[in-house]
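Hey, resending since the last one bounced:
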Amino acid sequence: MWHSLKHWRDWAMNEVRPLLRSGPQSQAIHVSYEKAGLVLHDPVVPWNADALIVEAILRLPPAARRKSDYTLHIPDREPIPAESLKPDAGSDRCRIYFRWNAMGQQAKEADLYWKKHRLGQVLIPMLSNVDFFAGLRFESPTVFARIASQSVACRTFVAMQCRGLQATAILRSSTCSLAAITDLAISVRFRNESDLTTVDVPVPLCSSQLSAKQALISAHLPKIPRRAGEWTITWHVGDKPMGSQFVRAISRRQFLQSLRVSDTRFVVVDGKGQLSLRRQIPADNSITRAGPCFFVSSSEVGMAGRCALQVYAQVPSGPEPPALLQQELLVTDGPTPFAPGLVNIADLAQTSAFELRSKSRVLGILPLSPVPSARFNSEGGFTAAPEFPWTPSADEELTERLQRLINSPIG
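The structure tokens again:
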């Protein structure tokens, strides 16, 4: 019997006391928690966790593998007995698990005991609801309008063209997993500022989103907005608003009046079949085909709309210019290239310019001839250049020439 007691004392000296001297070991004791049916391993435990779990990894001889000998001691509560003890296969390591209900919002220190011997300590950091919401953000909120078969990020859209409205955002937590938010519903409120009607759309999160610290979330407006007016879109967590956006639905007429040509170029194809953009069509015979490229935009902020555009060929002293090309284009508030096609260079011999129209309204003109120059005589007078339609390309060329003139040396 004395031999057995001596053996047990030697084990205690070799295994228990080193742990006692080394104090808490983050590699040996881990804290996790349960929420929404998930086991989560965050650096902090939220105030509304369903249960806390402490896992201790110890090297144990067979004689010390009784789970009833292990307890977890937390101030102001009864010792927590081990829930399970699982040996690792092929090793003398064992995993001891403790599980109990959540304990509030204050951090606690938990001491691990084998019988009356203290083996280690772990700090259980708790996260309050105030700190959680302080670190909760709705980032990159965006509204998409479905125009025909495309979903376009916008702040303004054509009411009669919209087939659906969708709000998206990135929900991000800087403290712990998003599972802590399950007790409070996420929703989006669509408010029509014309008649003050509101529609609340719930936004559920799946398990993979709940276990992460960020998630892309979205909500669709159930009804399609058909009238011009303003909408306010507000994200909510419970009853707390987290951020708002504003979008406008405008009429088709207002959209067409906002169209602008911000720049022009030529799309040309040389004898080798290479495609390129040029400010002017080269005077030599290196080009086989050419066509206009108009950069169209809307003056409305964040616009999304479709319109039918036509390209006409201007013929000097001719009848109404014929429509060469027609195409429907999605237009935003950024320059959108409109290059509907190419024409054989021989067919452009009698053409002086390309004209872009939206119905009967002329949006821009792209001359085929270079910008004419005024001629100065010896007396300081000049002969004015012939009449020429001013274009963004001509304006860019004028700026370039003036810049060269300013930077040229004097004398």
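The domain at 131-250 is CATH 2.60.40.10 (Immunoglobulin-like).

Sorry for the duplicate.
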